[in-house]
User: Fold this.
Amino acid sequence: MDLNERLAARRKELAEEAERARIEADKARQAELEAARQAAQAKVAAEPPLPDPMTLQTPAKKAVDIDEGVELLKDAVERTTKKQVAIFCAMAVLALIGLSQDTLMAIFWAVCALGYIAFTLGTHIEDIKKSSVSE
Assistant:
């Protein structure tokens, strides 16, 4: 065998060794991934199952919560003073006037009116809840 043939044979051996090493590394990586997946499955299986949220609250309880919200809103509207209603109406009128002049002004006053009434009713609802809790 001449030198070129020996070099070609050696290159072929080195290529085969590199291929075997790559295949072994792939197998080791696959084994690690499989072990990690099995560990994750075992961890999930070991944890207690979460309770079903649908069983935590019964439909009757939901209906009571809805009725309670309506009652709170009704009581909050009853607590609203004439002065607060007048301020809300003034802002609403300014919003309507703004429709004929400037759309941006109309949007501004409409947002102010809605924000004011929401804040007012929210404050009344908080007061009602605090007074019912203290009783």
In short: The chain has a mean pLDDT of 85.
